[in-house]
Amino acid sequence: MDGNGRWAAAKGLPRLEGHRRGAERLIEIIDACIDEGIGTLTVFAFSAENWKRPLEEVSGLFKLGEWILRAHLARLEKRNVRLRVIGDITALPDFVRGPLEDVMASSKANTAFTLVVALNYGARQEIVAAAQAIATDVAAGTLAPAAVDWSVVEARLQTAGMPDPDLIIRTSGEFRLSNFLLLQSAYAEIVFASVFWPDFDKAQLKLALAEFAKRERRFGQTGEQVQPAAAP
Ligand code: IPE
Ligand code: MG
After folding, report:
1. Which atom number of ligand 1 is nearest to the Cα of residue 3?
2. Inter-helix orientation angle 15-35/55-78, to 10°
3. Does the structure show a pLDDT above 90 at 208?
4. pTM score > 0.90 for this model?
5. Ligand 2 mean position, distance from CA 103 (Å)
């Protein structure tokens, strides 16, 4: 969800106002995703690198997170949304980690939609942790080095049990993944939207989905192999 700061600056507003408008947009986009029949949405809310921002912005973001959780909780429950988190939330302040853990627990059995919030998340940090877990199991003698395959790695990622992303949308005109789901994105289609996140509305989502629908996903095969007419 990139571009909140620039959206605000372009309007002569404080950066935190951009984050607030971005948070409102997220609620709209969650609704739109459910209406589109999408099963899982992962949003990059706070990266492991975002701690480098001014303290005022970091604490403003956490306060906003706590507010959005409280203000929209009933609506999420009503829509049967499960909340999950990836990233190291032990480092987050208690006032946001507490409610987050409560909602994760209370929404565990919800099945209509999964909202995954990446908080203090970094793909490289995730991969390092998985490597450490594998090394620990190998050292303990419970895992043979030759038995390490993709499923062993995948099971130790924070996204274990979640589907790989089919589509990744990066807003604000930037063309990079910025340490987001690096392994899981291996076959993701990537759409770059030029608008800042607070301007990414339902119509923008529809445009991104239309772009996604046009892509031919070959997963290493030839076009002939994956075309429906040619399928066995
Ligand atoms: C939101 O946009 C991303 C968050 C960390 C919440 P930015 O804050 O990165 O906005 P820009 O890139 O400065 O415009
Ligand atoms: Mg940014």
Report:
1. 14
2. 20
3. yes
4. yes
5. 27
